[in-house]
Design brief:
The structure is a homotetramer. By secondary structure, the first copy, chain A, is an all-alpha fold. Chain A has two domains: 1-48, Arc Repressor Mutant, subunit A, CATH 1.10.10.60; 58-190, Tetracycline Repressor, domain 2 (Orthogonal Bundle), CATH 1.10.357.10. Chain A contains nine helices and no strands. Chain A has helices at 2-23, 30-37, 41-47, 51-75, 80-97, 99-108, 114-140, 150-170, 181-190. In chain A, helix 1 (2-23) packs across helix 6. Chain A is elongated and about 60 Å long. Chains in contact: A-B, C-D. The interface between A and B is large, with 47 and 47 residues. Chain C binds a DNA duplex through residues 1, 4-5, 8, 29-31, 34, 39-46, 50-51. Chains A, B, C, D: Residues 29-48 bind DNA. Chains A, B, C, D: Residues 6-66 form the HTH tetR-type domain. Chains A, B, C, D: This is TetR family transcriptional regulator.
Chain lengths: 194, 194, 194, 194
DNA sequence: TATGAATGAGAGTTCATTCAT
DNA sequence: CATGAATGAACTCTCATTCAT
């Protein structure tokens, strides 16, 4: 029963991901999601309290998976710099290979109330903290500047990558996103100075 | 008459800024904006084709003003690095001193369709290009790396600053935004490397 | 403008009376009322806050008219007993001649929440108080028993008439309601007579 | 098995009485009743065809019990007048001592369609006929007026008592209901007395 | 230009009822 | 007999936009 319930829960989530990516959150009627999932409208409400809950749950699940991948790959790396490159690489390639998810995270999820954005902020936090952890480690190993403001820098790194992804999406994905990893990581490590 | 028209146009825009900042785009009814501007609902439609147009126009006007300020201040600077610091300084202080505008640009404006976001992209372009121009100049003056990918880097810089502002807003503005200028610029110039 | 507004207000109220009488409150969709009134659905909400407000307003207006008629006719009577007969006569004939109103007051209005019934109770109060006033006057004139519990008796009179009307309606109006005036009044007077 | 069936039937009815009394008919979801009865939603439909059937059955059962009590007590009385007082006494005390039932009969049961009200009318009939029987007997014994319209009077008596109960409920039960018996009966007897 | 009353399409959500297990 | 997950019809209310004045 639990597995069956879980199945339908995931079924709806998968359907929602597709519908949100194609039509955007506000233009995605619950009935459209239900139809895509092959269930009745009312069934949605057996698994989610409100329409917004689908969005939040979707984000939590998918971001959870992503953070899992980050941790998994980073464990296999040997140095902090290498790990940081891995983070950027996963960030770019995962979203490049999963355009639906990219649209939802970069475009649709932002189309929400301040209240919801705080909720999303909580879900993003583990990722931001992962970056911070690497920064702290780098400072301890004397690889990064001793006076580095890690709280500020984690935002700068995340924001920089985030903007690259969004810009790539809005441009219509006319170039390779993963090809930007080198330039991005070099910028992170060296800055722009000659 | 044209000046009078301009006056009412601005009147509506100012009212919209306040209303959007307080209630968010989707919760800001046209009638609420009209009331705040002291005009009739229908009058709005003499100056703006659709509700979304108010948002776009607001952004264009305000961003235009901002870009103007950037140009004005940069002309008074002597070097590229100094100019880049000035850009960051203006970016942070202007939004810190104009919280309404900050809310609209960082939160509400993102709550829009892909179509609208493209429109916004066009309005942001002059700013992004201003950054790019400084980067190109820096490379030419051998201040920045010769192999710098300026198209990518302009996004990284903008994205990094953008995230810092958004994060500051969502956190509830518990710390000084302008105090982040030093750390941000240092990161831009030096990167994180020791 | 005010008269025009008043006109549409009444238009909706008249339409609602017909629709409520025919289909009952819960089966009367707002769209049905709007159609009957020849206005758009949304227009209803320019004059009434919620669907329930239509019912309450309808009751207030109609009961207000009725109480007005009571007062008007009673002023023309000479004695208390005659006045009491007039009350019963108006009660029965008005509802007999306005079956739609009768249905709404006797059947549909009762189909409401305890909260709403209290609201209705307030609207009925002037009528109950009118009856009480007559009873007090009768006691003072030694026409009615000196030990008469006027608070209780006003309920007994109102309830008795109310039940006669409801029963007449539910029976399918197979007999004359106004023909019950004599029997009712005789019962009342003998009951309260000194 | 039949007794077991009867048990569950009563179980649901008792649960429904409580739920209806607390939340009202329209706000009492079938699932809420099922939960209160400790059965599954679907089980309700093994005993009742529709939600309304629960209400009707509830009324029939409870009113049947009441009418039984009336008959039982009246048999023990010696005169018609005494019997009539007993009727009023039972009417008031039974509902005063069973507030849940009072709420359902006076408030919730009225919240139903004309169709249902006819159904309820049938259930009330034995009680009304009981009153009529007493009236006829009284007339035969020359205790009551010879020209008494018993069909009308039975309604007047029932309606008067009904209104007293409803008014007592809506007022928030701030006074004793059974204390109204004397005043009520005195009014009745004087009204119909020979 | 300006008004603001009127429009009416649109969608989230509830819940009585069913039926496969 | 019993279950409870699934169904899907039903309906109120909002609000961007229009247009007669």
């Amino acid at each position: 029963m639990t597995s069956k319930k879980k199945e339908k829960y995931d079924l709806i989530l998968e359907a929602a991901l597709k519908v949100f990516a194609e039509h955007g959150f506000h233009r995605s009627q619950v009935s459209k999601i239900a139809k895509a999932a092959g269930v009745a409208d009312g069934t949605i409400y057996l698994y989610f309290k409100r329409k917004e809950d689908i969005l939040i749950s979707l984000f939590r699940e998918k971001l959870g998976e992503l953070v899992g991948k980050f941790h998994m790959h980073i464990e296999q790396t040997t140095g902090v710099k290498e790990a940081l490159r891995k983070v950027c690489e996963i960030h770019y390639t995962e979203l490049e290979n999963n355009v639906d998810l990219a649209f939802v995270t970069q475009i649709e999820l932002r189309q929400s109330s301040l209240e919801l954005r705080k909720e999303i902020g909580k879900a993003v936090k583990p990722y931001i903290e992962l970056i911070e952890k690497l920064l702290v480690q780098g400072v301890e190993e004397n690889l990064f500047r001793a006076d580095l403001d890690v709280k500020l820098t984690r935002l700068l790194l995340f924001g920089a990558m985030d903007e690259v992804v969004t810009s790539w999406l809005i441009s219509g994905r006319k170039y390779s996103l993963s090809a930007q990893v080198d330039g991005t990581v070099q910028f992170f490590l060296q800055g722009i100075q000659a």
